[in-house]
Structure formats: structure tokens, C-alpha cells
Amino acid sequence: MTSLDSARDFVLDQDGVRLTVEDAVATVTLTNPSKRNAQSPALWRALTQAGRSLPGTVRIVVLRGEGKSFSAGLDRQAFTPEGFDGEPSFLDLARGSDAELDAAIAEYQEAFTWWRRSDLVTIAAVQGHAIGAGFQLALACDLRVVARDAQFAMRETSLGLVPDLGGTHPLVSLVGYARALEICATGRFVHADEAERIGLANLVVPAAELDDAVRDLTAALLAAERDAVVETKALLRGAVGRSYDEQRTAERAAQARRLRDLAGLGD
Q1: What mean pLDDT value characterizes the chain?
Q2: How far apart are CA 107 and CA 87, in angstroms?
């Protein structure tokens, strides 16, 4: 354990996921570098539990992967007849009813949804491969700080599948429909420089500077007043679904709440 780790409270460490909390910052780490942080249903449940375990003091969540890769995607063992110990294989799931299959996928998706909560700002620190489920996990976060060796790819189509872990909505929002279709349908790799150019990455840095860049961004976010950030995130997330006039109305309502709070007139 490093000196940095010793200053943190360990909240969860199971199934390839470790959650630590230090004041207002939580770090979720994928901890199976020998398999390039390949994902499984057990890992997804651990990610869901990490979200549920966050103390109310947390404002920033950093997501990172140990080793050379952020996450190389779904562990292919899921497609073998035996699957994982104690888990139905994906082949078994496919033989179930539509309702059972839908419920299973919905449970998996929960690991990818809580990152978008309005009371948090989430940052993916991405190095090496972010493929398939790994790409979608990076997309689940609000912001992505990327090492120069990062490679994103949505490889589901090569398996005869579709991206189903919540990644399609943020991908289209970030890069537009046509480019999202091209990335998903071809399964090609998007390297760090392109990721920054098309809006997938907020910042690209040398791999050795990734942790420092994330710390700098975290400090800048924490310098802002918490409730103002919460209201701003909610405004921006809702903007796509609103007309211009509806967004102006939402801005007025949010600002009125902030002014009343600042004047000590809030509920």
C-alpha cells in the first residue's frame, strides 16, 4: 500500500473493483491488470455497489484501470458454454424468455448509469485499450482525460452484437450520429489525438502525466461551489432534449434557486 492509499478510506474491494474515498474525491479502480481489466457480470455488480456506497460528501469520482489498459472490454469467457463460476453464461441467457434477458441486461446497465448523477462529476482516466464495454464505461463518465497511448473501439459488431451498456447515447451526443455510426459499425480504433479532435477526450497528455492531469482537473472542479456545479450539470444534461426557449426557462429557474440559496431564502 502506498502512502497515498494509506490516506484514503477503503470502502469496497471485490470482483476486480476497488473504491477508495479521500474527502470529496472517490476513486474507482479496475484491479485486474493481468486480463487488461476485462469485464464480467460480477465486476458490473461491484461497480453498481461502488455507486451505492459513495458517501454524501463525495463530489468527484475518478475512474481508472490498473496496468497498461483501462479496460479491454467484455471477458470472452462469458460466451463459453461454462461461462463464469456461479453465473449463467450469455448462451444460457439467450435461451431464456425475453423478459428474463431484458432484466439481465438492465441489471448490467446499472453499472454504467450512476456515473451521470447530477450531484457528481465523474472523470475517466484512460490509458491503453478502452474497447467495447471499456469504451462504454469511459463514455459513462462526464469527462475523459486520455493518455497518448489510448485506443478506443466499439467492437461489439465483430461479435454480432450491439453496444448495450449505455454507451450509444453519450457517443452520439459527443461526436454526432454519422461518426458514431461509423465508429460502431466498423469497430475501428480511435486513437487519442482523434479522440480529442472529435470530442471524445477532454484532454490528451503523455501517459506519465495522466494522474497529475486528473488531479489538476479535480482540483479545478472542487474550487467551484458545489450546488452551482450540480445545477449547471443538470442544465447542460437537459439541454439536448429542450428547445432554445425551454432551455432559457430552465436557466431562469435554476438561477432563481441559486440566488435564493445565496440570500438564505432557500427551502
Answers
A1: 94
A2: 14
Distance CA 178, CA 184 (A): 10
> φ and ψ at 13, to 5 degrees?
-155, 95
User: DSSP 3-state assignment of 144?
Assistant: strand
pLDDT digits (tens, 9 = 90+) for 237-252: 999 899 999 999 999 9
**252 HSE (CA, 13 A, CB side):** 6
- How far apart are alpha carbons 126 and 174 in whole angstroms? 17
Task: Indicate whether 4 pLDDT > 60.
Answer: no
The pTM (predicted TM-score) of the whole model is: 0.93
CB-count exposure of residue 200 (10 Å: 0-12, 13-18, 19+) = buried
Please check whether residue 22 is in contact with residue 62, taking contact to mean a CB–CB distance below 8 angstroms.
Answer: no
Residue 63, classed as helix, strand or coil, is: strand
Q: How many CA atoms lie within 13 A of 107 on its CB side?
A: 13
Q: What is the pLDDT of residues 60-93, one digit of tens each?
A: 999 999 999 999 999 988 888 887 888 888 888 8
Q: Are the C-beta atoms of 198 and 192 separated by less than 8 Å?
A: no
Cell, residue 4: 497515498
3-state secondary structure 224-255: CCHHHHHHHHHHHHHHCCCCHHHHHHHHHHHH
User: All 3 cell numbers of residue 105?
Assistant: 441486461
- CA-CA distance, 12 to 180, in Å (whole number)? 34
Provide the grid cell at 212.
497529475
pLDDT at 267: 65
Nearest to 47 by CA among 100, 102, 115, 104: 115
